[in-house]
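hey so u asked for the seq, here:
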Amino acid sequence: MSELSNLRILLVEDDPDDAFAFRRYAAASEAYRMEVDHVSTPEQAHNRLGGGQYDLAFLDLRLGEAVTGLDILNDIKATGTHLPIILLTGTGNEEAAVQAMKRGATDYLIKESFNCEVLERSVRHALEQYRSAMERRRAQEELKETNRSLQEALEELRRTQDQLIYQERQRALVQLASGIAHDFNNALSSILGFTDLLLQKPEMLDDRQRVTRYLELMRTAASDAAAVVRRMRQFYRPCQENEAFSSLSPNALVQEAISLTEPRWKEDAAGQGIQIKVETHLENVPFVAGNEAELHAMLTNLIFNSVEAMPEGGTMTLRTRSEEGEVLLEVSDTGVGMSEEVRKHCLDPFFTSKSADGTGLGLSVVQGIVRRHNGTIEIESEQGRGTTVRIRLPSKEAEPQAGAPAQPEAWQRTLSVLVVEDQHGPRELLREYLKTDGHKVETAADGAEGLRKFRAGWFDLVITDRAMPEFSGDQLAAIIKNEVPKKPVILLTGFGDMMEAAGEEPAAVDLVLSKPVTLDRLREAMRTVLASGQ
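ran it, C-alpha cells below
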C-alpha cells in the first residue's frame, strides 16, 4: 500500500452528480491526497481492479437494475484480493449493510450524510482495518506454521520412542504441549476432588467454614488452570527476562499446594488402602519474587511425584528455611527412591523411569520454572530410601502490608450494557455479573442481533465476544465506532492472551479481556474503558 498521504482510489458510481461531489470532497481533504479514478459500469470496475494498483475502492450500491455494488463486491472478494472496499448507499439500508459486511466490505456510507469529514473518517477507518487484518493474517500464518512444526515433532517422537529429540525447536514445542496437559490435569484434580467430596458427603455442606475453604481452593485451582492455558503464548513470544514478579510467601505457597493436592495424597490414597502422612517444617522465611501459578505448578509436580514414589504409603515432608540470601524449599519422601543412573538423568527432557506411563516432562518442567525464577535445583535419592528435592530461590524483602484489600467501590450510577455473546453459558454469566452490580443488561446471540439492538436502544457500554455467527466482534466494534466514535467497547475472547502475545490490537476496540473472566476483572475493565472515555 502507498503512503497514507497519497492514496489511489477507485470510485464506481453511475450518477455523475454523486461522482462530482465525491471528487470535490476528496480534493478538499487536508488529511490525504487522493487520486480518484471514476468508472460507471461493472465491466469498467472489473478491468480497473484487476490491475491491483488501488489503495481503496468505493462502490455504489445501485448500478442499474441488473448488477449491484454487492454483486461487484462478491466478485472482487472471490478473487482473493484484500483491498478495502466501502459501499455507498442512498438510504440507511440495514440489511444491505449486514450483507456488505458478510461479503467482506470494510464499511458503508450513506450519501445523504456524506461530506469531507465523513470521507476522511471512512478512509482512516478502512486503512486501520486493512492493517489490522494484515497483521492478523500474518499471526494466523505464523500459528499455522507453528502447528505444522508441532505435528512434525510429535510424529518424529513416535518414530524414535527410545531416543531423545535434541533439535531445540521441536523439543520446545513437544515439551510445551505435553507440559500443558500435565499441569492442567493437576489443577483439575483439585476441582474434581473437592467437588466429589461434597457430592459424596452432603453433610459437609453444613460446615460453612469447610465449604468456604474448599471453594477458595477450587477457585485457586481454576485460576492455575487458566494460567496453564495462558502459557501457550510461548508459541508466539518467549517470556520476557525482566517480566515483573509478585512478592510471594513461600510458606503460604507450600500450604496452598498441600491443600490443593489433598484429594490425591489423602482421599485417593485412602481409597486404595494406602496411608500417606504429610509433615511440614516451615520456618519464618523471607518473601520470594515469582509467578504464583508457576510456583504452584512446581510444588504440585513435586508432591505428585512423591505420592507416586510411595505405592505402599509413607511420609512426605515439606520444609522451608532461609540460607544466605536464599529461601530453601525442600520436598522429601520415604518412597522407592532412584538409582544413581536415574538420578543423573531425571531432569533431562523426555527421560522417564515410568515406562509408557510417564512423559518424562514433570521434573523437566520443574527445572524450567526454577531457572526462570533465577533459582537452583538439586536432587538427592537412593533406592529404597526415598528422594529429596531441594530448590533455592533468591529471597526478597516483604513489601509493606496495605491492610485488608479494599472492596470495589460501588458504581455511582446504573449502567446500561449490551452483551453480545453466541455461547449461552458465558452470556448468562455476564448477565448475572452485571445484574449483581445493579446494571441493566441487554443480550444478543450474534453480531447481527447485537447491531440491531445497539441501533434500537442506547447503551453506556458494549461487551462483545469475538468469534460469532453473521459477523465477528471486530466487525461489530468497527461499525459501532463508525457510528458512535466514543462508545466504549470491550472485546471478550478466549484468545486474548494469544492476541496480546502476537501484538494484535483491533482498531475499534477499547480493551481486550481474556476468558475466563472473574467479576473483579470485569469490573476493573469496565472502569478502565469508562474512565478513558470521559
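The chain has three domains: 6-133, 168-396, 416-532. The longest strand covers residues 314-323.
lmk if thats what u needed
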